Amino acid sequence: MANEVRPCPCDIGDRFDYGGRGQEVQVEHIKAYVCKPPASTDRAVVVIHDIFGWQLPNTRYMADMLAANGYIAICPDFYVGQEAWKPSNDWATFDDWLKTRNAGKIDKEVDVTLKYLREQYGAKKIGVIGFCWGGAAVQHLMLKNPHLETGVSLYGVIRFFDDRSSLLHPTFFIFAEKDDHIPLEQVTLLEQKLKENCRVDYEVKIYPGQTHGFVHRKREDINPQDKPYIEEGRKDMINWLNKYL
Fold first, then answer.
1. Residues 150 and 241 sit within 8 Å (Cβ to Cβ)
2. Is 51:132 a contact under the CB 8 Å cutoff?
3. From its phi and psi, is residue 90 left (phi > 0), alpha (psi between -120 and 50) or beta?
4. Contact by Cβ (8 Å): 91, 6
5. Residue 199 sits in a domain of what CATH number?
6. Which positions are catalytic?
7. What dihedral angle (degrees, nearest 10) is formed by the CA atoms of 228, 48, 186, 7?
């Protein structure tokens, strides 16, 4: 949860004890985690991590879930070797840390990832999902990258790109009702701007009673009342991808 000394509520939360079913690969100048589905496919999804980086077990769990649903899933290290945020770090230094990790400056890494997916896996239809910092990055890509088909932004930080809403591709926005970092007023304003400026399909959905990170971070067994919303968020994400990929 956010408070005075924590400008972002991306606490590690309930970190999964999860090793992942995929493998780590080198994609030109970056490393990435890749998980393939049981059957061959030309559909792929780029997974953009949150501030805890590409090695977070929770994020790899989500990549594996995508693979289980028929997608080639790849989660590159968008920090390009720079250290991810650690729960033990001093939150007073967070703003300075964030300045060197701009969610709007990932285009080079996305380009090499798309090239890799096409050349190594024959991917023809590629979408993108992202969490928090990565959710903001999804919005950035939906605004400018012509080579993607669709995107799902999960509790993406609205203030990073709140002045732009002319999306190029169908985009699904997932928000939590009780997200201390993304007030509902911001979500309402985003919806208003999308309604005015967006010419492609989009959806903004707020999940009741949920907090930041609920889709990929909370453990259902610890928060049984949240389980239906966690499952709903994951199902909605998959359904959106299925619709446009």
1. yes
2. yes
3. beta
4. yes
5. 3.40.50.1820
6. 132, 179, 212
7. 100
Give the HSE-up count for residue 43: Cα atoms under 13 Å, Cβ half-sphere: 18
Residue 195 lies in a domain: yes
How far, in Å, CA of 240 to CA of 237, rounded?
5
Tell me the two tokens of residue 16: 């999964």
Does any domain span residue 6? no
Q: How far apart are CA 27 and CA 33, in angstroms?
A: 10
Looking at residues 84-108, what average pLDDT do you find?
Answer: 93
- pLDDT tens column, 49-91: 999 999 999 999 999 999 999 999 999 999 999 999 998 899 9
Q: What pTM was estimated for this model as a whole?
A: 0.94
Per-residue pLDDT reduced to its tens digit, 185-225: 999 999 999 999 999 999 999 999 999 999 998 776 678 88
- H-assigned helices in 69-224: 94-99, 107-121, 133-144, 184-197, 214-217
Rounded CA separation 230/236 (Å):
10
Name the CA dihedral angle for 174, 45, 51, 59, rounded to a multiple of 10 degrees.
Answer: 90
Q: Where are the beta strands (DSSP E) in the chain?
A: 23-27, 30-35, 43-48, 72-76, 125-131, 150-154, 171-176, 202-207
Q: Which pLDDT score, from 0 to 100, does residue 165 have? A: 83
Domain count across the chain: 1
Q: For residue 68, what are the domain limits?
A: 23-244
Q: In what order do the strands lie in the sheet with 30-35?
A: 23-27, 30-35, 72-76, 43-48, 125-131, 150-154, 171-176, 202-207
Q: Does residue 67 lie within any of the structural domains? A: yes
Strands 72-76 and 150-154: unpaired
Let me know if residue 163 belongs to a domain. Answer: yes
Closest listed residue to residue 67, CA positions, set 42, 38, 46: 38
